[in-house]
Prior knowledge:
The chain is built from 16 helices and eleven strands. The strands form two sheets. A seven-stranded parallel sheet has the order 4-3-2-1-5-6-7, sandwiched between helices. By secondary structure, the protein is of the alpha/beta class. The chain has two domains: 2-131, 3-Layer(aba) Sandwich (Rossmann fold); 135-293, no CATH class.
Amino acid sequence: MSIVLLGSTGSIGVNTLTVAQRYGIQIEALVAGSNIDLLNEQIAIHQPKMVAIAHEKDKARVNHPDVRTGAEGILSVIEESQSPTVVNALVGYAGLAPTLKATSLAKKVALANKESLVVAGEFIDMDLITPIDSEHFGLWYLMNERPVSKLYITASGGAFRDWEIEKMRSATFADALKHPNWSMGNKITIDSATMTNKLFELLEAKWLFDSSEIDAVIEKRSIIHALVEFVDGSTTAHFAGVDMKLPIAFALREKVEEPILPPTDLLSIGTLKFLPIEQSRYPIWSIKAHLLQHPHLGVVVNAANEVAIDKFQKEACSFFGMGEMVLDAYKKFEDVKPKSIEEVIEVDREVRRYLK
């Protein structure tokens, strides 16, 4: 078996290569951004046939005879590959076109790029998508084809879950990156602090499991990742360690019958507590119910959120200013209804123009 790995130098990419090595999975192509030193280490170990990177200026630094660059380079790698599976761990809107290209070629996509489904879930063949996400993996693991009444995913609460709200008004970009439970990339860590990440995961769950009966609660320990409430009145929870290798192994192999993680030590857990997600701390949560009923507006939320994060990083808006920008755009564009991928791309452009 072989795979194409997009986003090889990020945390999901690094974990994917560990799983691939363990099971003898070949790496046909590696796609990375600007971390050329780590990419060269990966090339030396995994010997891919093709490589793609973000920027032409870095091409000469890559130790490989076949290096493509930019968005077109990524798509050419997918198109020319023989691998049946593409692992998409790219960050943000940039991950959408590769998902569409892979599914158009009937390749299976092991998807860690949330934005693909948030922006264009309506136009993606879910039969070809396997999520690499602890929450959605947990839901899938629990459901087991039994009749379900409601799905729940959990949130850590992000970097500011224990801060006074008044103090959050002056929080910096660096403050927001100090996640209490996980080590992740910048964007997803900021999204965790605003709860946008969890809103995106609810939208993903809607497309993946064809249900609007979905909600999220805070579980600060990140030991329970998902819960399923069944029609019979029982609720089952998925416990697992904070490690992405388990969902990655299932996404690549479909079946795992050996230890990937150490078992959960129930006696060491102590008390578990579930808390509501409050709009005063996470203003984005005010659109949750409306967005689940109008999931096509995910493109608006994503575009506005990416602009807002960029402004926050450049100190052009406050922490809560990000949420204000997203909610402003959501209200401005709430009547749009893209009917094709081309219209999705145009709405994305319009939202970015509006906020810039």
